[in-house]
Every structure is written in C-alpha cells, then in structure tokens.
Amino acid sequence: MLVNYITVRYIPFHASVLVFSHKVRSTAGGFISYFTSPPWNSSPIPSIWQMPLQPDGGKEYTAITCGSLCVIFFLIVLATSGNIPSTAPWWDARRVHTHYWAHLEGTQAGSVFIMVSGAFYVVHSAALMREIQKVTEIDPIIADLPFASAAALFSAFMLAAIAISLLTFRDYGAELTQLLNDLLWMALILAGPIFLKRGFDQSCCSIVYALGSGIHMHHTGPIAWNGGLVFLPMMVFFGLQINADLWYV
C-alpha cells in the first residue's frame, strides 16, 4: 500500500515540479533574451519564447538595472506606510492599529509596490544567472543559485504583500492588526536575500543579514527588527549589494 501511495501521489507531483521549474527557467531566459538581443531588425519578429540566449549584447544592463528599481520600490513601500523609521516590536496593539489607519492610503499602495519590487528582483537575479553562465568551466548549479534564491525571496515578498494589504483591508481590531504587522516584518527580514556571488557579499552582506535571524526573540535592543544592527544595516547593505552589480556588469 505504501509503494502504491508513493507511486500514485509522489512521483506525479515530483514530475510536475520538475516541469514547472523548467518552464519558469525557460520563461526567465526568454525574458532576458528579449532585452539582450531585441529582434527589432529581424523578419519575421520571433516570439520571446523562441529566441535563444545570445552570448552578449550589452543590453543585459537593462535587466540588471531592475535591481535598483527593486530597491527604489521597496523604499517607497516603507515611506508610504510610515515605516521610515519602522514600527517597533514593543509597540502595543492599539498603537500599531492607530499607526496604519493613520497611513491608510499609503499602506494600501504599499501592497502593490512590494509585489512590483519582488518582480524586479527576480528579473535582476535572472540577469545575474546569465552573467555567471558566461564563465567557462563553472558548475551550472552556481549559475542557478541567484535565480533560485530570488524565487524563494519572491515568496517572502508575496507573503509580506498579503500581510500589508490585510492591515487596512478592514478593521480587524488592534490585536489582529498587530499580528499582521509582526508577520510583515518577519517575512521581510527573516527571509534575507542571501546568496553567494562575490567575496564582498560573502564577508559583509551575509554577516549583516544573519543579524536579522534573531528578530523573533527580541522586542527591544539592537537585534530587534528596528534595532541598530538590523533595520538600517540590512537596508544599506541590500542596496549596496544590488547596485554593485551595475558596476561589475
């Protein structure tokens, strides 16, 4: 019975996951190819699903720039929702509730901006994957790492978007509003964009991101989500990491 269950349930599911992963990677490759090798002068104009990846064209810079757009839209989310500086984990439920309803329109707009920010990050990471693929004699898994990490981080962006959209969707009361705010910050900070690209990222950014791994245990102090070792350093190093790719590419 166990063998039949695994055969009927697990194997088809595993196969569907592989097919879905292949489709996602093919779509990203086609999207990047559309920017790097535009078919403006080709006749007939091929579909982006059919265009092969070109070795280079200089237009990958456009896709890499999406990383900077990701940072800009993320800052817009924080600004419009009144989270610069951020809400504090030691605030009581009534204060959190009052804060977000005082920033009603900005919080509602933030749910859209955070989804757009996550989408830009995926495009940015797909371009990084392409750049790494140009390195000869490199294990393919190294090239896949930035894109796989971006896919995982995009899930965190979506969770944060759902949380921020529900904050002011209707008045759930102070306690549930506080819960949604906690969920928002756990999704944004605990799921830091950690992946290996260069020595600078390994030695600096990864250490800074790791400082946010304990925010679920601290309401006050430098390791809380609004603490001096978490919020501002993570925002600064995330921006540096993203925009450094413009220089290297």
Describe the model.
This protein has helices at residues 2-36, 60-80, 93-102, 104-133, 140-167, 174-190, 199-210, 231-248. It has a domain at 61-192. It contains eight helices and no strands. Helix content is 69%, strand content 0%. The radius of gyration is 21 Å and the shape is elongated. Helix 1 packs across helix 2 (60-80). The protein is mainly α and 249 residues long. The termini are far apart.
Radius of gyration: 21 Å
Number of strands: 0
Classification by helices and strands = mainly alpha
Could you report the average pLDDT, rounded to the nearest whole number? 75
Globular, elongated, flat, extended or rod-shaped: what is the shape?
elongated
Work out the strand percent: under 5%
Order of helices and strands: HHHHHHHH
Helix content: 55-70%
Low-confidence segments: 1-25, 34-55, 195-200
Characterize the main sheet: none
Distance between the termini: 55 Å
Helix count, per DSSP? Answer: 8
Please summarize what this structure is:
This protein is an all-alpha fold and 249 residues long. Helix content is 69%, strand content 0%.
SSE topology sketch:
Elements: H1 2-36, H2 60-80, H3 93-102, H4 104-133, H5 140-167, H6 174-190, H7 199-210, H8 231-248
Helix pairs in contact: 1-2, 1-4, 2-4, 2-8, 3-6, 4-5, 5-6, 7-8
Which labels suit this protein?
249 residues, mainly alpha, 69% helix, elongated
